[in-house]
Amino acid sequence: MTAPDAADLKRDQILAAASRVIAERGYHATNIADIARELGAGHGTFYRYFKNKHDIAVQAVDRAMRRIAEALADEPPEVATSLDEYRAQVTRIAHRLFDLVIAEPVVARLFFFEAAAINRERAERFHAALDDLGSFTAAYIRNGQRRGFLRAEVDPEVIGLALNGVILAGAARMLRVSDPAAERDRWVDSVLTLMFHGLAS
Amino acid sequence: MTAPDAADLKRDQILAAASRVIAERGYHATNIADIARELGAGHGTFYRYFKNKHDIAVQAVDRAMRRIAEALADEPPEVATSLDEYRAQVTRIAHRLFDLVIAEPVVARLFFFEAAAINRERAERFHAALDDLGSFTAAYIRNGQRRGFLRAEVDPEVIGLALNGVILAGAARMLRVSDPAAERDRWVDSVLTLMFHGLAS
Amino acid sequence: MTAPDAADLKRDQILAAASRVIAERGYHATNIADIARELGAGHGTFYRYFKNKHDIAVQAVDRAMRRIAEALADEPPEVATSLDEYRAQVTRIAHRLFDLVIAEPVVARLFFFEAAAINRERAERFHAALDDLGSFTAAYIRNGQRRGFLRAEVDPEVIGLALNGVILAGAARMLRVSDPAAERDRWVDSVLTLMFHGLAS
Amino acid sequence: MTAPDAADLKRDQILAAASRVIAERGYHATNIADIARELGAGHGTFYRYFKNKHDIAVQAVDRAMRRIAEALADEPPEVATSLDEYRAQVTRIAHRLFDLVIAEPVVARLFFFEAAAINRERAERFHAALDDLGSFTAAYIRNGQRRGFLRAEVDPEVIGLALNGVILAGAARMLRVSDPAAERDRWVDSVLTLMFHGLAS
DNA sequence: AATGAATGAGGATTCATTCAT
DNA sequence: GATGAATGAATCCTCATTCAT
């Protein structure tokens, strides 16, 4: 276990400053001078720690993707044995994600708005990550179908991606409202009802 | 009613060429030379019909947004008087949207991937459009609640945005699969079940 | 036979301007702004005709190398059948080279001083060209040895490179004196005596 | 007479390291980091001993020029009283120069390839040094002419510079061949024949 | 009206040099 | 004395835009 040294700290500071600026202005509108100003350092300092502007952005975005994935991936898809357990699991995941979005809007903006904005190659990587996330969600659905507490007739892959879409929409919403905590609770309530019981009365 | 003259036709040709290139490469990776090559005309020609690169992109994206809105807005939110009618309405809307995505991927890419990529101001306009679309969907939910065939306890605004998210996820999917017509039918089936009856068995 | 078009002319003008500046200031001290100023055009104009600064310099130097090679290569090594014919041949070659140096000092400076200055790869190419030139001169020596009018005991390759050195020294001298025509005649006289009869009295 | 202290030693080490790197990569392709790596010291250390990069290079080159001059200047131009003595003198000088080139290729590369590469001012100084060397060689010729063992009709200044050129060509050759000792002997033999007896049979 | 050669503002990047530790 | 992290001036290069033909 090595102690983080001064260089690692500096690296993290630059990454944090770049993340803030890119999240605020967008990748293409951000220039090196903006990042330098945000950190209070000279341009050259970045180039000691990162290869170029693309490299900084990719690392900021990758870090954001890891943070989002950690919030989602903590719950194994096979553990829920009943509808109530699964419902509790979904509730926990939703809260964790929304709380992360609320607590770290920079991370959320990098993930939702900048991950696909850097270039085509990164956009494809972002969509592949969403596909992976959909497959991961599909594993929960399949678990419930196997155990008999979720409808067998729905296509798990479709539902996985559809729930992705719901989650993205909710997270994007949290970034845009003035009282995100209240919005979060409204979302979880209504979406859980939609998800488990449908809209038909 | 004035007949479209030659200038309008040329304008449309340029807009179509720019739309194809921007949809393929992305706004920031597209340069004027790319569009000129695609159209087989000189750079200067654009500047006769459009103010600048930003202007072309905005008009291409706005046109795509109008096309998408037309596909969705044909169905007034108040007409459905029963669950079956609403279900049929939703099915029609979904088919119209997905068919548009399949038939005109350029329009879909401009809407889903480029509308928010141009700059911050356009990203905010895109999100406002999604909010409008959510409110529009919420009107359907409210109609169903008023008429008693949809659950009263869900928040229509939340459900409106959540269904937005499902639609976006589905449309993005249509752009990425090799047999989009089959994918469309899988989506409509599973998503209607989710939407009206929920996943609980 | 195609007529040179406007683009070729412009290209040649830029190459000529860059050649003058590089010959005067040296490759590394020359920047794009200097060349732009010399031509009276914007920076961007260069980049329409040349890939980058390295590309301009390489083409300027290669053109200079071709000009020098043309001045030397006009005389086939095998034609001289007697000492007098060879002496006349050497005299012609020397005059052609020195006259070129005097008439076009830019070409000479590019060849003698900048060909090896761009980078290591170009320096090696320059030295390879000098080796080729030495081998070419050696062919004259071998012709004279075969025909019996030049001493058999000298190594033609060594003499070829040694005469290279004499020529380079003379050409460099022409670039540095105020009356190069007089200097040229002094050189040809003394060097021919050295070359054919030696210094011993 | 002061003993060389630790500071002088360090200075010499830095100069030696810089000489090696500049000889290998060339002045303009060498950066301070390369020299620091070669020495195993920090950048700042140079700036304790040398004013800047230009200063290091100039001192490295000047030292090389002194080393070359020492190899040549040991023989006073007036001592030879006969052709045989002069021939022996020339042979000694040539061996000393070529042996230095072979033993210390770094010194030779700095002199032949980098002395003129630093900037215009240094290039002119290099050419002035070659002119001085030519005048020095001319003094030998004049001595031989005065004493009657060398031809009176050649121009000593021209011959001085021409022999310079031969020497430079030979030294450059020594740097490029795999068996420089054999090459040296071939050169001395053929060039002495050329120099004293000429090529005519 | 159409063209595309010319332009130069703008931005990314390098690297010699400094100076706090 | 030694260090090397920090700096920003300097420079290359791109590309949206203009305008003479």
UniProtKB/TrEMBL annotation, chains A, B, C, D:
Listed A to Z, the keywords are: DNA-binding, Transcription, Transcription regulation
- One Gene Ontology term of the molecular function aspect: DNA-binding transcription factor activity
Q: Does the keyword Protease apply?
A: no
Q: Which InterPro entries match?
A: Homeodomain-like_sf, HTH-type_TetR-like_transc_reg, HTH_TetR, Tet_transcr_reg_TetR-rel_C_sf
Residue ranges of the HTH tetR-type domain? 8-68
Q: Which residues bind DNA?
A: 31-50
Q: Which Pfam families match?
A: TetR_N
Q: Known Gene3D superfamilies for this protein?
A: Homeodomain-like, Tetracycline Repressor, domain 2
UniProt-recorded name of the protein = Putative transcriptional regulator, TetR family protein
Species per Swiss-Prot/TrEMBL record: Gandjariella thermophila
Q: What is the lineage of its organism?
A: Bacteria, Bacillati, Actinomycetota, Actinomycetes, Pseudonocardiales
